């Protein structure tokens, strides 16, 4: 039985190239474990950047054919997407090797540290990265296990979504989508927001209530009406609204092109190279948590001034002929609306492209997508969609992205469907102006990063 991180030495990760899995794999490798893993995207003779970076850190990588599992393997880690038919699962069962889910392993790691768990339906990766940077700048030498690569770590040749710290402090993302957030018992729990995403609001409220109960200290966003219900101490909380005061309140928001500014408690000014009010909200959350463990506001301001961002979160790829190209991980209705809104101060026209993922999730959120996106689009803005990303499995394909486009047109939006995303650039060329933003949005599809680069290179 695996009850602590000391109960195994040679873990094997199935789907090790995934953002969540690779983060834990790197963390354990850096902690002294002998880590190995496989992935369906690892093909013989084909270059894979993630594989290269994992192997550079000493993690042995294999094709997903069962060859990586040996009698010396003492733990196999799976995500919720890994099915029993995968050769590694079958071999692990034949060899009686313990199998646990990624979330269970992360809970064991979290239990071994003074953990800050960042929860909420939006902003977890950004807030985790900001908090890590603040604690690092403050000399607290934290670790991090994140769902996205920090640019500061990527520049060092790393995947960037994990680092072993030299102290007891560890920052993690606590995922509500699979309910795993209830497994963590953090030193500090942070709740950013609660919006309809993978689950109905009633289910999410129960999940986050358990998260609160499991946290020694709890910090919530009092600007968000649902999150505010779970407040335990107003002095620990943060807010963007004077009518919902908290221990840490932001005001005087400004956005000048690609930078934002604001003040906290009317005493400390902050400036970040980011877009959008939602990133002020994320920063304020990180500031509030850092203050709980003694980091002064001035130190947080110094750290965030140098914050370089994370992979595919309002990531500016550049400007050509007056067109800004921005790549973003936005994939639920609130995130898509926030990403579009953040780009609007940059230029008088935003052309947003979105690739939904999953037929079930798209159908579940259809009306919410239409409502949120149509509400934020200006008369000059446009929304384009390509067909839903299908990752395989037994999903019923009973909805198309074109259905959402039809709904958006009916709502009065400038909406266009381009089934094959490879035809997007040619289709939108006549819509581009010398002063506009081309915003690319989507998640779960590992080829979206290369797609963004292709759009930028061929613009």
Automatic annotation (TrEMBL):
<dbReference type="InterPro" id="IPR050061">
    <property type="entry name" value="MurCDEF_pg_biosynth"/>
</dbReference>
<dbReference type="Pfam" id="PF02875">
    <property type="entry name" value="Mur_ligase_C"/>
</dbReference>
<feature type="domain" description="Mur ligase C-terminal">
    <location>
        <begin position="312"/>
        <end position="444"/>
    </location>
</feature>
<dbReference type="InterPro" id="IPR013221">
    <property type="entry name" value="Mur_ligase_cen"/>
</dbReference>
<feature type="domain" description="Mur ligase central">
    <location>
        <begin position="118"/>
        <end position="290"/>
    </location>
</feature>
<dbReference type="Pfam" id="PF01225">
    <property type="entry name" value="Mur_ligase"/>
</dbReference>
<feature type="domain" description="Mur ligase N-terminal catalytic">
    <location>
        <begin position="13"/>
        <end position="113"/>
    </location>
</feature>
<dbReference type="InterPro" id="IPR036565">
    <property type="entry name" value="Mur-like_cat_sf"/>
</dbReference>
<keyword id="KW-0133">Cell shape</keyword>
<dbReference type="InterPro" id="IPR036615">
    <property type="entry name" value="Mur_ligase_C_dom_sf"/>
</dbReference>
<dbReference type="GO" id="GO:0016874">
    <property type="term" value="F:ligase activity"/>
</dbReference>
<keyword id="KW-0961">Cell wall biogenesis/degradation</keyword>
<dbReference type="InterPro" id="IPR004101">
    <property type="entry name" value="Mur_ligase_C"/>
</dbReference>
<keyword id="KW-0131">Cell cycle</keyword>
<keyword id="KW-0573">Peptidoglycan synthesis</keyword>
<keyword id="KW-0436">Ligase</keyword>
<dbReference type="Pfam" id="PF08245">
    <property type="entry name" value="Mur_ligase_M"/>
</dbReference>
<keyword id="KW-0067">ATP-binding</keyword>
<protein>
    <submittedName>
        <fullName>Mur ligase domain-containing protein</fullName>
    </submittedName>
</protein>
<keyword id="KW-0547">Nucleotide-binding</keyword>
<dbReference type="InterPro" id="IPR000713">
    <property type="entry name" value="Mur_ligase_N"/>
</dbReference>
<keyword id="KW-0132">Cell division</keyword>
